[in-house]
Give the backbone structure.
Amino acid sequence: MTDATPLNVLFLCTHNSARSILAEALLNHLGQGKFKAYSAGSSPRDNQTPNPMAIATLEKAGISTDGLSSKSWDVFAAPNSPHMDLVITVCDNAAGEVCPYWPGQPATAHWGYADPSEGTGTDSEKFEAFTQTLFQIKRRLEIFTSLPLTRLNKMTLENTARELAKK
């Protein structure tokens, strides 16, 4: 990785509507040009869109939601898709699924988070669940984005991303 070439990171979840969307927007916000984040789902529903509470949570945190959309991970397995350096699953369902072949065999890691969209209660309680998930993702990504470039080769990248799963 050079200073001019951002590290491409793909966040995967089942529907690509909440956790992976939060992670994509947050890494693009924190990455300061060192990273380019994407997100996708293993089986997004027909006409799936990002969860409105995910969008509201990002907007309240001052994080851009421009360009966020729900899409299948097949989009990133196509020959003309961006080359991924790191693929991170953010939900337990996607972690156990057979992933498509990723060109270039990127580093992989799993960072499990509870699904905030599955919560019940008042809108305020549901919004709090999204806020907590955003905070949990942010904690890992702040450590990740502060790493020196020498820690971002494939083997070190994979080991570091997997170690962050324990935090």
